[in-house]
Design a protein that fits this description.
GDNF_fam; 5 helices; Cystine Knot Cytokines, subunit B; signal
């Protein structure tokens, strides 16, 4: 199949000697291939061993949950127009996420069906659901700092307490009335937030 007049030398010379002669003749014309430093390989190996030991500490169910969460995140990114998820996010995106985490506590709203509220009613009617969202970092009091200190010192152990203020409704909107799928009339109170604050 090959129509060339290439002649091969007999196997008398060892591969290492032929490699040395060819490398000495072509060392001036070809640049040397970049090599990875041993430190980088060592760092990569230590990271790999850390992740391996971390994954070995999970149960099979936890690994399945982790994989399904990653697949869901990837599919959401693909559906929102993103081409791929970066392995190492940029510093700018980290800053944006940090700013998003520190938004002040405020009132937001969302139009949802009654069935989506999760209260057990079947209805296609839509309601305006108002909720509280944001952080309360600026509202940390001496109480919160002392409570956090007592928990870190293990002076308070078993009680379920929260050592930081939470963004919650301070007042609720008017009652919401609707018809369900069977034409029954219902009224739900304290459904939507009217005012939000850090408590």
């Amino acid at each position: 199949m090959f129509s060339g007049s290439r002649k091969y030398s007999p196997l008398s010379s060892s591969p290492s000697s032929s490699r040395e002669s060819s490398s000495s003749s072509s060392s001036s014309s070809l640049p040397a291939a970049p090599r990875r430093s041993p430190r980088a390989l060592q760092r990569h190996g230590s990271l790999l061993s850390q992740y391996t030991s971390l994954l070995e500490s999970y149960t099979e169910g936890e690994i399945r949950q982790l994989i399904s969460a990653l697949v869901e995140r990837y599919s959401q990114a693909m559906n929102s127009g993103g081409h791929e998820l970066p392995l190492f996010p940029r510093a700018g995106s980290r800053r944006k996420r940090a700013r998003a985490r520190h938004k002040p506590c405020e009132l937001r709203e969302l139009e949802v069906s009654v069935s989506e509220l999760g209260l057990g009613y079947e209805s296609d009617e839509t309601v305006l659901f108002r909720y509280c969202s944001g952080t309360c970092e600026a509202s940390v009091r001496s109480y919160d700092l002392s409570l956090k200190s007592m928990r870190s010192r293990r002076r308070i152990r078993k009680e379920k307490i929260r050592a930081r203020p939470c963004c919650r409704p301070l007042a609720y909107d008017d009652d919401v009335s609707f018809l369900d799928a069977y034409n029954r009339y219902y009224t739900v109170n304290e459904l939507s937030a009217k005012e939000c604050g850090c408590v």
